[in-house]
TrEMBL record:
Domain ChrR-like cupin residues, every copy: 135-200
Listed Gene3D superfamilies: Anti-sigma factor, zinc-finger domain, Jelly Rolls
InterPro entries attached to this UniProt entry: Anti-sigma_ChrR, Anti_sigma_zinc_sf, ChrR-like_cupin_dom, RmlC-like_jellyroll, RmlC_Cupin_sf
Pfam families membership: Cupin_7
SUPFAM superfamilies the UniProt entry points to: RmlC-like cupins
Identification of the protein by name: ChrR family anti-sigma-E factor
Length: 226
């Protein structure tokens, strides 16, 4: 694994300040990346120490604390849940172009909110995921031996590789890799013959095509979401 979330995203993940789509993508990445997992643990420890320091400065009476714990116990006792068995998250299943792929359990909740697949010439397929956030989240399937027209981005594009691999002008990307691009990047992702690719894509703004007839999608400066 050669491509990772930056420290800013990892810190937002550790402190719970990240959006749900990026949170799911990073959770999936760190399951198989010990380097990023260690960095998240460091940020979590720092956040814990900061909270402890803040708590020590606050003045709370013993009655206030007693009331807090009493309310917590009441909430726990009234929950209608069965804790006799641990909750196990199951991987998700994605079907596209006559194929089925297994995706990590961390991504499964997003898969459950997929829309119908849209096909671009039977080569590229996209399915928008309904999340109540400003970014556009989708699954992107690229068949083997396909090149996506060169484009850049008005905002950020985050990509998590779920199956297969692809490459562009900046390198090759494989399962588990997390890639983040912005307006400084112009690239034309492509798959090689014999290798398709399934990715989770998160866009904060539309992408802008920079070459060929695909530039017609840039009309009125709006760009295009996949």
């Amino acid at each position: 694994m050669s491509h990772h979330p930056n420290s800013e995203l990892l810190k937002l993940y550790a402190t719970g300040e990240i959006d749900s789509a990026h949170g799911a993508a990073i959770a999936s990445h760190i399951e198989s990346c010990s380097e990023c997992r260690a960095e998240v643990m460091k940020f979590e420890a720092e956040a814990g120490e900061a909270m402890m320091s803040l708590s020590s400065k606050e003045e709370k009476s013993s009655k206030d604390l007693e009331l807090v714990f009493s309310n917590m116990l009441d909430d726990i006792m009234t929950l209608d849940a069965d804790y006799s068995k641990p909750k196990v998250r199951k991987p998700g299943r994605v079907q596209v172009d006559g194929k089925e792929f297994i995706v990590p359990a961390t991504i499964a909740p997003l898969v459950e909110r997929m829309s119908e697949w849209r096909s671009y010439g039977g080569k590229v397929f996209t399915s928008t995921i309904d999340v109540d956030e400003e970014c556009r989240v989708s699954l992107l399937y690229i068949n083997q031996g396909v090149q996506v027209p060169q484009h850049t981005h008005k905002g950020f594009e985050s990509t998590l590789v779920l199956h297969g691999s692809f490459k562009d002008e900046n390198g090759e990307y494989h399962v588990g890799d997390f890639i983040r691009e912005d307006g400084e990047t112009k690239h034309a992702p492509q798959t090689v013959e014999g290798q398709d690719c399934l990715c989770l894509s998160i866009l904060t703004e539309p992408m802008i095509f920079t070459q060929g007839v695909a530039r017609v999608f840039n009309m009125f400066g709006k760009g295009m979401y996949p």
